[in-house]
Design brief:
CATH architecture of the largest domain: 3-Layer(aba) Sandwich
Structural class: alpha+beta
CATH class of the largest domain: Alpha Beta
Strand content: 5-15%
Radius of gyration: 29 Å
Mean pLDDT: 86
Length: 554
């Protein structure tokens, strides 16, 4: 058959057919779906969720390529949740965490949290309080954004003090505290204590440990020596040890022993009954039951519970103890209080699975300064009226009656609003009181790998004396022995349970390493900094030599 050239119409028809077939059979190109990141938070109450629902909606309105899965767990369980989910390989992308956990969660053998990118690191170093920067930094690497910081203070009810003692002045020494506590204790017709004069705040091992440390430091005592190079230690150089087993530590617990119904010879000398502490906590503020207690900043509900009587409260430094006085210390110059931080970090899993950029985008958005009313003008914003610029996380923390770590957020309200001056944090006695305690008497809570395990031991020690009336002279040395078994061995850099040749090699390698490249090189430079002084030096090598062959639980 003779082949003929196709006509123009035939060619057009053929092209149409081919193009139709191609379009039908080409794979469908889907629009990119948003990246979902999971945030593990500690804010679980209905009013807290109301706030964060509004915040998350605002973020997703501005970042349509990112969605947030918000998982809220109770603060006292989040540590276990973080570790459990890591073992299951199900780490969330962003976690709220106590800064004391950072050495464990940043362990370079199996890190849970990832180091921050350079822009976040620069932001944190430039715009956050030094104590918060330190808390969010491990081995010279910043791991996230600090959130709240808390100091401790003696919180006292001025009207209760006046009714019991004829004076509204707080005690300055433990002797005065005991006297005033007994004078302010109120009993019912049966003699049972209904209004404690001074009581321990022991809601969880963290607060028990802090209760003890506030008193210990204010008695010129020391808590731990992690690297074993303290001049006041009793062990050979290089051996870590608990330092609170001396008279100063015993005296700190004897203070509560002298005020507990479990231990005093004369019941009228007691200022609190351990058996009724849980009930008293619930009514401590609304019914103004407690005269004095040492607590941290975060007591969110106090303001609302007391209402118009909130100004009955006063805030003062922790009274100083007998050993401090004997050593020449004075009040308030030698008072001390624990300062501790929380933070938000991004996980290594988010980094591995390419969600870290989205996670950091969310955290940077939370921490950027905003003008008043940015989220929702009608939403409750806390006790201090909005002025200008405060970050979203700062606004939330102040709403929740805790102090933000960002220095700009501490200026919250310092500009005028519509030409009318607004209140400032330093004019609110609660915030000002705790800011002053942190600035004048605050000492940071030093983190280390076994901090949670040590805390449990110290919390139990405190409860054995304050709640069950056991003898401090027996309980304290027993606890010191157990804590010394837990403390990590200085020099076990690779955390295999023994200080050995591989650890010495790591010191040599890190000594000569140049900190070039991104995060990994910085980590390599710092992991052999055994004594946490910010550099790898001869002192680290000496600790390796001293502890060579020593074993411990990694």
């Amino acid at each position: 058959m003779k082949k003929t050239k196709p006509s123009k119409n035939a060619i057009s028809l053929l092209m149409l057919l081919l193009s139709t077939l191609v379009l039908v059979n080409l794979p469908k190109i889907a629009l990119a779906s948003p990246t979902e990141i999971e945030v593990l938070s500690i804010w679980t109450e209905p009013e807290e969720r109301q706030y964060w629902d509004v915040v998350l909606a605002k973020f997703q309105q501005e970042h349509t390529d990112i969605t947030i899965k918000w998982t809220a767990v109770e603060m006292d369980t989040i540590y276990e949740v973080i570790l459990t989910r890591n073992l299951e390989g199900l780490d969330p992308d962003v976690i709220c965490m106590h800064a004391m956990w950072l050495p464990k969660l940043a362990n370079y053998l199996r890190p849970i949290v990832a180091g921050a990118p350079s822009d976040v690191e620069n932001d944190v170093k430039a715009n956050f309080l030094p104590v918060a920067v330190k808390a969010a930094t491990y081995r010279n690497i910043v791991y996230g954004y600090p959130t709240e910081f808390n100091s401790h203070a003696l919180v006292y009810n001025k009207e209760r003090l006046y009714a019991g003692t004829g004076s509204r002045d707080p005690p300055t020494t433990w002797s005065e505290l005991i006297t005033k506590a007994r004078q302010c204790t109120i009993r019912d017709g049966t003699g049972a204590i209904t209004h404690p004069g001074f009581m321990p705040y022991i809601d969880g091992n963290e607060e028990k440990r802090y209760e003890f440390m506030n008193l210990l430091w204010s008695n010129n005592g020391e808590f731990l020596d992690i690297t074993g190079d303290s001049a006041v230690g009793t062990q050979p150089f290089g051996v870590p040890e608990a330092l609170f087993g001396d008279q100063k530590g015993v005296e700190a617990l004897e203070l509560f022993e002298s005020l507990s119904t479990k231990t005093v010879t004369n019941p009228l000398d007691a200022s609190y009954n351990p058996d009724t502490l849980p009930d008293i906590y619930g009514l401590a503020w609304s019914e103004e039951r407690v005269a004095m207690v040492v607590i941290p900043t975060w007591f969110t509900y106090v303001r609302a519970a007391m209402g118009a009587n909130f100004d009955h409260l006063g805030i003062a430094p922790v009274p100083i103890g007998p050993s401090m006085l004997a050593d020449g210390g004075t009040y308030p110059q030698n008072s001390s209080c624990v300062v501790y931080n929380w933070m938000m970090a991004v996980t290594e899993r988010a980094k591995r699975e390419n969600r870290a950029d989205a996670a950091w985008t969310f955290l940077k958005w939370l921490n950027a300064p905003r003008t008043a009313g940015y989220i929702q003008p009608g939403l409750p914003v806390g006790p201090i009226p909005k002025g200008g610029p405060c970050s979203i996380i700062g606004d939330w923390l102040i709403t929740d009656s805790v102090l933000p770590s960002r220095t700009g957020d501490l200026q919250y309200g310092k500009t005028s609003k519509g030409g009318v001056p607004v209140d400032t944090l330093d004019k609110d006695f609660w915030f000002k009181g705790f800011i002053d305690q942190a600035a004048l008497y605050g000492r940071p809570d030093e983190p280390f790998i076994k901090s949670e395990e040590v805390q449990d031991q110290v919390g139990t020690m405190f409860e054995r004396v304050a709640s069950y009336g056991e003898d401090p002279t027996t309980v304290v040395p027993e606890t010191v022995t157990e804590v010394n078994k837990i403390l990590p061995v200085p020099g076990d850099i690779n955390i295999d349970g023994v200080v050995s040749v591989p650890d010495a090699v790591l010191v040599i390698d890190d000594w000569d390493a140049e900190p070039t490249g991104p995060l990994s090189a910085k980590w390599n430079r710092g992991r052999a900094d055994v004594n946490d002084d910010g550099k790898v030096s001869l002192k680290d090598g000496v600790l390796i030599v001293v502890n060579f062959g020593r074993t411990g639980d990694p």
